[in-house]
Amino acid sequence: MAAEPRKRILSGMRPTGKLHLGNYYGALDNWLRLQEEYQCFYFVADWHALTTEYETPQDIGGYIKEMVLDWLSVGLDPDKSTIFVQSAIPEHAELYLIFGMFTPVPWLERNPTYKDQLQELPHKDLATYGFLGYPVLQAADILMYKADGVPVGVDQVPHVEMTREIARRFNHLYRPIFPEPEVLLTEIPKLTGIDGRKMSKSYNNCIYLSDPPEVMQQKVRQMVTDTQRPFKKDPGEPDRCLAFPFHRLNLPEERLQEITTACRAASLGCVECKKMLALALTANLAPIQERRRFYEKHPEAVLEVLELGNRRARRQAQHTMSEVRDAVLFNLDFQLWS
To answer: Is 177 buried (19+), middle (13-18) or exposed (0-12) by CB count in 10 A?
Structure first.
């Protein structure tokens, strides 16, 4: 019997800066597992980056290169996953335009992320059509490839639900073409930057995947740990230590138990504990950095991956848009008019 075709998923990242450990443990590590089980489409969301970075588009190109280098370095396999650049597939813009014709404005205005971003980025002018409408572009990205599922954290669930609503509305107005993608909830570890705040390049508190080992170790030594343990002689509590979640991701369970016991007994100080973390982290990331050095020396290999992925994605996009144009009666043969 023929094997069941793999279900399809889609996910992407905006190229707005170098990738850090939050990106790795929060998304890329999961992408690696998914590519073993699903037909995966992973894309560079450069048009999405313009929704907030439209004043500095000159930075986006460099970030695209850095991000794809990181993707390949962590082990995304172009033989298993289609890796492509959003703006290289013009059909995304066409489907975005069509969806925008029937998406009610109140759907966009009630988007919780839209409201949160307006408050979190007061230094940016986000009162733009593009920023308000980015969930429609996101729906076009997902539905273009008829994704069965979208891996997201719980805060992104409303975006997928809006995509489902847009799919239902299109299927009702014209004819059934699009599946309603399911949410694939991703458990995102609660990681903070080295200063205890959210890990963010704007806070200058990130540990980047591209940081040399000595830089990583220096940043780990600067990490905020248990703020309620001012001295080594005081008992610590790993559950309130801001560095301990990194231990959980880099050490075996037996070693975690030893550290927990020693911390609570005040026989292990934070300085020594962070030294252990730094060694474990750099050792675990060494294969990633080795692959990165290879791709840095062979940029033609990175370009080849993107060219292959763009071709694959474009074929699927052209097929979908042919169906869409038929459904909205825009596949006119003008030769018949002559």
So the answer is: middle
3-state secondary structure 297-323: HCHHHHHHHHHHHHHHHHHHHHHHHHH
CATH number at residue 26: 3.40.50.620
In 3D space, the residue among 173, 151, 170, 169 whose CA is nearest the CA of residue 160 turns out to be 151
Q: pLDDT tens across 7-60, in order? A: 999 999 999 888 999 999 999 999 999 999 999 999 999 999 999 899 999 999
Q: Is there a single domain that holds both residue 231 and residue 316? A: no
For residues 56 and 98, membership in a common domain is answered with yes
Question: Model-level pTM?
Answer: 0.93
Given a contact cutoff of 8 angstroms between Cβ atoms, the answer to whether 150 and 9 are in contact is: yes
Structural domain count, the chain: 2
Sign of CA dihedral 142, 143, 147, 153: positive
Domain identity same for 51 and 67 = yes
The residue segments making up the domain with residue 217 are: 211-294
DSSP code string of 136-156: HHHHHHHHHTT-SEEEE-GGG
- Residues 180, 194: Cα–Cα separation, whole Å: 40
